[in-house]
Design a protein that fits this description.
single chain, five-stranded mixed sheet, alpha+beta, elongated, 8 helices
C-alpha cells in the first residue's frame, strides 16, 4: 500500500475531509488503513465505511472500507502534530486524487524506492542513475538526513549544559564535604592522639567515601530507571505518540557511574586532607 497523509489529498483537504460511518456494501469497497489517532478522533473501527474527498468542499467523495488501524512511525520532527493519516492502494489513491481537468495529474510521481540485490552498491547505483538522468535526484536511504542537523545542535547544547552542571555539582559537593568533615575534627584529633597516622585515617575516609559514592550512584541509577518509565508515559500521553523521549542505555549508565564514583571519592579525600593537614591541637581546640 502507498502511504499518504490526509493533507496530501489536497492543499486544504485535511480540514474538509468528510468521514461518515456506514456498513452497506462494505465488502465491495476498496480498503484503506487509518492511523490510530484518526480512528480515535472519529470513533472509527475496522469494517466501518468512510467517505474521503480531496476537495475542501467535500465534493465528489469516495467510499472506503477500514481494513485496519496502524500506529504511525514516531517522528521526532513531528511529535507535536496530530497523525491524521491514511494508507491507500496505489490505484485507489490515483482515482481519489484524479483531476478531470488535468489528465496527466495521475501520471506524476514524487519518489520511487528501489531495492538492490547488493545493498553495498547503493552509492554506485545512485551516482550512475544521477549521471544518466540529470533531473533525477538519487540517494541511498542510509545517507545522512539533513533534518538530523537540528538534533546535532541540540545534542551539543545538552553536552554544554551537562558540563556546566557537572562542574557546579562538583564544587557544591566539595563544599558540602568540607563542612561535614569540619564537624568531625574533634574525632579526627582524638584518633590522631591515640596514634593513628594520617595515612590510616585517610584510608578510612577513602573507604567511607567510596561506600557513600557507590550508594549514591546506585540510588541515582534506580531513580533514573524509575523516572524513565513515567517520563515517557506522561509525554507519550501528552502528545499521543509512541515516541520514546527518554532512554537509559547501558552506555549512559556506565558514563554516570564513571563520573559519579570518582567525583564522590575525590571530594571526600580533598575535604579530609584539608582537615588532616592541621595541627593536632587545632583539631581538639586546645
Amino acid at each position: 500500500m502507498i502511504r499518504t497523509r490526509l493533507r496530501a489529498l489536497g492543499a486544504a483537504a485535511l480540514a474538509a475531509v468528510a468521514i461518515c460511518i456506514g456498513a452497506a456494501r462494505a465488502g465491495e469497497l476498496p480498503g484503506v488503513l487509518i492511523s490510530r489517532q484518526l480512528a480515535e478522533a472519529h470513533g472509527l473501527h475496522v469494517g466501518d465505511v468512510v467517505r474521503l474527498s480531496r476537495h475542501p468542499s467535500t465534493e465528489g467523495p469516495r467510499e472506503f472500507r477500514v481494513d485496519g488501524v496502524y500506529e504511525p512511525t514516531p517522528d521526532p520532527m513531528r511529535f507535536a502534530q496530530a497523525h491524521l493519516e491514511a494508507r491507500f492502494h496505489l490505484p485507489d489513491l490515483l482515482d481519489l486524487i484524479a483531476d478531470p481537468s488535468d489528465p496527466t495529474a495521475t501520471d506524476t510521481i514524487g519518489a520511487i524506492n528501489v531495492a538492490l540485490l547488493d545493498p553495498s552498491r547503493a552509492e554506485t547505483f545512485a551516482r550512475d542513475l544521477s549521471a544518466r538522468f540529470p533531473l533525477v535526484i538519487a540517494r541511498p536511504t542510509t545517507a545522512p538526513n539533513e533534518r538530523t542537523t537540528t538534533f546535532v545542535v541540540i545534542e551539543r547544547f545538552h553536552l554544554a549544559i551537562a558540563i556546566v552542571t557537572m562542574i557546579g555539582s562538583a564544587v557544591f559537593l566539595l563544599a558540602l564535604m568540607v563542612m561535614l568533615v569540619d564537624e568531625r575534627r574533634e574525632m579526627v584529633g582524638t584518633l590522631r592522639l591515640i596514634g593513628l597516622t594520617r595515612r590510616r585515617i585517610l584510608l578510612q575516609v577513602l573507604a567511607e567515601g567510596t561506600l557513600i559514592a557507590a550508594a549514591g550512584t546506585v540510588f541515582g541509577l534506580l531513580f533514573a530507571l524509575a523516572a524513565e518509565r513515567w517520563f515517557n508515559r506522561f509525554f507519550q500521553w501528552r502528545y499521543d505518540t509512541a515516541l520514546v523521549f527518554l532512554r537509559i542505555t547501558p552506555s549512559v549508565a556506565m558514563q554516570s557511574v564513571l563520573l559519579a564514583m570518582p567525583l564522590g571519592v575525590v571530594a571526600s579525600l580533598v575535604a579530609s586532607w584539608t582537615l588532616l593537614r592541621r595541627h593536632i591541637l587545632t583539631l581538639i581546640r586546645r
